[in-house]
Amino acid sequence: MKHSKTYILLQGILLIQCILFISGCTILDWGKKNFKQAERYERDIVQKVAPYVKSTIVYQQLSTIATFDALFLTDKMRMMYVDYYTKRHLVSSEKESIMRQRLLNENKYYISFYVVGAQTENLYVSSHALFTGEYHKQASLLGEKDAEWQLYMKVDGKEYAPDSIRVVELPIEYQHFLASRYSQFKSVYLVKFDSVDQYDQEILSEGMHDVSLTLVSPRYKAQLEWNNVEYFLDK
C-alpha cells in the first residue's frame, strides 16, 4: 500500500515538472518572439579599461565622507575611446585619423585625468536652528581655491601641482567605461598637468611609471594609484 502511494506521488511530481517545463518553454519562446533583445557589442570594454580606472572611498568610522573615481587618459586609453566612438558614429577614415592624432598630440602637452567625485553634506547641531539642527552645505568638491579637496600628482616619487581643474560633461563613451562608478549625482572634472617639469624635462617619458593622485581636505587624505603604467603608445 505504501509503495503504491509513493508511486502515485512520484507520478504526480513528474507530471507537475513536465507541465512547468512545457509552459516554461512556451513562455520563453513567446518572449523571444515578441520581445526581441538588442544586440550588444564590446561587452568586455569595461574590463579593457579597468587598469586605467582607480577608485577610493573616504570613511569616517561607518560614514562615507567622499568618493573618488579617476580615469587616466593615457595614449592607449584615448585610442580605446576613439575605437568605441567610431563604432557609434559614421566617421570617415580621414576624420578618424585626425581625431587620433589630435588626442595623441594633446597627450604630448598635458597629462590628463577624468575625476568623478561626490561628498556628503554636514549637519551641524545648533540651538539657534529652527528644527533640530542647522543644514550646512560644504564647499565645492574640486577646482576652486576654497574647494573642500585639493589634489596633486605624484610620478615616480616626485610631486606636481595641476595646471587646470574644470567641471565638464563626461562624454557618453567614458560614462560607459566607468560603468556603475558614474552617476548623474556626481561631479566630473577634467584635471590637467603640464607634461614637462620646471626644467622642461618630460614628466612621463617612454617606459613604465608609478603615477598617483593625492586628494587632501582639511581633515582627510585619499590616494589613487596606477603602478607600472605606460603613458605613451609603443612606437
Structure report:
The protein is of the alpha+beta class. The chain has helices spanning 2-34, 45-49, 75-88, 93-109, 172-178, and strands at residues 53-60, 63-72, 110-119, 122-124, 134-136, 150-155, 158-160, 164-167, 187-194, 208-216, 221-230. Helix content is 32%, strand content 31%. A hairpin with a 4-residue loop joins strand 10 and strand 11 (221-230). Helix 3 packs antiparallel against helix 4.
What is the secondary structure topology, with strand pairs?
Blueprint: H1 2-34, H2 45-49, E1 53-60, E2 63-72, H3 75-88, H4 93-109, E3 110-119, E4 122-124, E5 134-136, E6 150-155, E7 158-160, E8 164-167, H5 172-178, E9 187-194, E10 208-216, E11 221-230
Antiparallel strand pairs: 1-2, 2-3, 3-9, 4-5, 6-7, 6-10, 8-9, 10-11
Helix pairs in contact: 3-4
Quick gist of this model?
The chain has two domains: 1-37; 45-230, no CATH class. The chain is 32% helix and 31% strand.
Rg (C-alpha, Å): 27 Å
Number of extended strands: 11
Terminal CA distance reads 84 Å
Overall shape: it is: extended
Q: What spatial order of strands do you see in the largest sheet?
A: 1-2-3-9-8
Keywords for this structure?
four-stranded antiparallel sheet; 31% strand; alpha+beta; 5 helices; 2 domains; five-stranded antiparallel sheet; extended; 235 residues
